[in-house]
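Anyone up for a design puzzle?
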């Protein structure tokens, strides 16, 4: 899911940097209004959780790999803005220190995995109607939030890669950055995330959400009135 250096053209990664800076500015402003002292440790834990879970890359046939992100769980527990900031911190550290994801692609990677995934997961959970057994409904909604938010994020990432041959190519049509067209990038990314990585993200989200719902329900942001 991490886009490396050399795969996005300047006309793609520069707008994403600008958008990312704007998103972070809004996020900090939002969080400052609501953040209580007891929440600060959870912010650090959220960033550490996302950082750790993204380090477990699972290889798949075809020479590529994938991983869960953790943004969905953080968004449900502490809110989408907290998740956006926490996952962004993890992505930036990975890029600057571990070389996981490109420095030029930090804006795009944070936009995809931190912002898009967090808000998608939050609103998917909120859209699922309640049932007779609210506890079970919440666990199912948590799984679907994790599953679909990761899959949608993968498709958006594939789209950013797939448009590169269109927006940046040599005079003879040779792609200057990511060489794969939309017809290749989107099916490749969608298939592996709908069949495997989305399920992993959904299970992690549902299992940990279940624990918090059972033991620390008062902390869960998405269940607050």
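Challenge accepted. My sequence:
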């Amino acid at each position: 899911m991490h886009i490396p250096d050399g795969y996005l053209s300047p006309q793609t990664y520069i707008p994403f940097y600008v958008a990312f800076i704007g998103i972070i500015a809004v996020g900090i402003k939002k969080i400052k209004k609501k953040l209580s002292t007891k929440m600060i440790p959870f912010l650090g834990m959220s960033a550490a959780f996302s950082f750790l879970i993204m380090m477990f890359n699972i290889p798949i046939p075809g020479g590529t790999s994938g991983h869960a992100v953790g943004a969905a769980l953080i968004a449900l527990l502490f809110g989408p803005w907290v998740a956006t900031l926490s996952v962004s911190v993890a992505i930036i550290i990975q890029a600057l220190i571990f070389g996981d994801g490109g420095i030029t692609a930090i804006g795009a990677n944070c936009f995809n995995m931190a912002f898009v995934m967090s808000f998608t997961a939050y609103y998917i959970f909120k859209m699922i109607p309640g049932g007779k057994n609210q506890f079970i409904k919440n666990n199912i909604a948590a799984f679907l939030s994790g599953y679909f938010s990761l899959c949608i994020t993968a498709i958006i990432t594939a789209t950013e890669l797939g448009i590169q041959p269109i927006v940046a190519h040599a005079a003879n049509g040779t792609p200057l950055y990511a060489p794969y067209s939309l017809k290749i990038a989107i099916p490749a990314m969608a298939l592996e995330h709908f069949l495997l990585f989305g399920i992993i993200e959904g299970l992690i989200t549902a299992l940990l959400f279940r624990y918090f719902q059972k033991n620390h329900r008062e902390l869960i942001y998405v269940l607050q009135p």
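A detail worth pointing out: The mean pLDDT is 91.
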